[in-house]
Structure formats: C-alpha cells, structure tokens
Amino acid sequence: MKKVGGYESSITWAESTKSKLREIFEKQMEPCKHQVICHGDAWNNNLLFKYDEDGVPVEVMLVDLQLCRRESFAVDLNYFLYTSLTGDVRKPNLDALLETYRGHFNGVVEAGGAGGEGASVRSKCLADGAGDVPEFVASGDGADDLERVLADCRAKSLEMVDTNPLMRPRFLSVFDELTEAGLIPASGAP
Questions:
Q1: Helices 74-84 and 121-128 sit at what angle, rounded to 10 degrees?
Q2: Which of 159, 133, 162 is nearest to 147 (CA)?
Q3: Phi, psi of 62 (to 5 degrees)
Q4: For residue range 121-155, what is the model confidence (pLDDT) as tens digits?
Q5: Furthest-apart CA pair in the chain: how many Å?
Q6: CA-CA distance, 11 to 21, in Å (whole number)?
Q7: Beta bridge partners of 151
C-alpha cells in the first residue's frame, strides 16, 4: 500500500494490528454455529461449467478438492467474492449476493431439521475479509517455513501490483470496503 500511495490509514491500521494477529486468527478459528464442509480454494479458476448446445451454462461444480475442511459457512463465500470479483462488481451487488446465499443456506438448514435463527452472512464475511490465512497459523518448526513462504508471497504480490492489471484494483478495493464498513478506522488507529 505504501507503493501505491493514498492508503496511509490502512497502513497505520495494518502496522498497529500486527502484534494482535495471532489473537485475531485464533478468534477466527473458533468453531461457529454453522460449520459446513468448505472447498478451501473457491475461486473462479476452480469452477467447471457444463454448457448446453447453445453455449448456455447449465451446471457448475467445484474442482481441485485438496483443501476441503470443516469451516464456517462464510469462508468459501468470502474467498470467492474477494478473489473472483472486482470491487466495482462486488460492492454494489454484495447485499443481494449475500441475501441470496443466506436464503438458500437457511433453506437447506431448515430442510435438514436444524431450524433456529438465520445465518448473518454479511457480518461473518466482513469479519473474515481482512485475511484468509488461518490454515497458515504455525508454531515451532513450521514457523521458519511459513516466514519464508510469506516473504516470497509478499515479494510476488508487490511485483504483481505493477505487472498484473487485476491485482491493484482487487487488492485496494478490499481495503476501501473495510474502511467504509468501519473495520479500518479512517484515522488508522485500532
């Protein structure tokens, strides 16, 4: 964000949040009421479509299943929305997308006999929006490997800000939305 400019409050917030990352990840990993089997890598490149003779999609399935796990219902949805949609598409349609998902999810829960209160998808997605790396929380021997992997990822991400036309707007739109939602204070202080 320093490289791009104009995101000083997000930079201040990120730097002040570093010391709390373990606590944040542990909180996010606590079991929630609505755990489901998640795909773990739900983005547009892992969707396989079947088309009819007119080229209209008639079925879709997720492929690349090695990261499946039991997780909050919002993890795959959040991952898909923030990796596969640009901010200019996601932001004006987010409430409708989440309401559609919530309606179908609650219908399945009720049909399965669980009933009870409906799931609040938007609050869960916003809570998960700051990062999607709980599976990488490491300790002991894995910490050195994790630091190397994260350093490599950071270097590649910084390079992509300049070389990949999709990277900059998608990355920055997440911070714009987090600031607008009040999750990143405009002043940058936690």
A1: 60
A2: 133
A3: -85, 140
A4: 555 554 454 444 333 333 444 545 657 776 787 78
A5: 56
A6: 15
A7: none
